[in-house]
Design a protein that fits this description.
Blueprint (H helix, E strand, L loop, with lengths): L9 E6 L6 H13 L3 E6 L37 H16 L3 E3 L15 H13 L2 H9 L5 E3 L7 H10 L24 H13 L4 H18 L1
Parallel strand pairs: 1-2, 3-4
Length: 226
Amino acid sequence: MVKAEGKDLYALTIDYNQRHQIELTAAKNVAQFLGIQHQLVLPLDLRLFGGSSLTGEGEVPKGIPQKQIGRSIPNTYVPARNTVFLSLALAYAEVVGAREIYLGISAVDFSGYPDCRPEFLIAFEQLANIATKLGVEAAWSGLPGFRIHAPILHWSKAETIRRGLELGLDYGLTWTCYDPTPSGLSCERCESCLLRQRGFREVGVNDPLKMKNEMNKEEKHSTRNG
């Protein structure tokens, strides 16, 4: 969406030693697909803190009824993750002279994470403009300071998927699953997978990752019966 506005993009990917590296590969592939020239992959070992199944502590919940998703904060919550990530993005933005920071969080189809809410974004934007050289000098001179954008904040997964399709995004390059199989396929049962599946169903199009899973199952079945 930001690319379509004609803006220069700087992409920041955090390698925080999550359960798998597939999403890092996906981030690289999406950046290449969009023609982003500046993509920084920053290592940050959040396993040292722990406190989340995404950094190796505990099992990722599976098969939760969709009506229950978002009613409590699951163990996939990584303590203060978006606060940490946005702080790093803020530092990067200040160095390259970017005043606008975009992130793809949603307060509609999400798992109840506290750092995916509008209140969080408002508070962080205020912080950004009082805690940085660029923000303070902008206030002195009457220029715009930092803006924190979350363009899909109030969109459902279906609305997000539909907009991506309109913009020509190849969803086969994207990744959603928290706990992929040993062969690198989506588990199809974690909260993130379930929300993605519902979104594609509501749009009425096939999810290329689900199609890949089904093809893999057919190949294994053929091999066993061959």
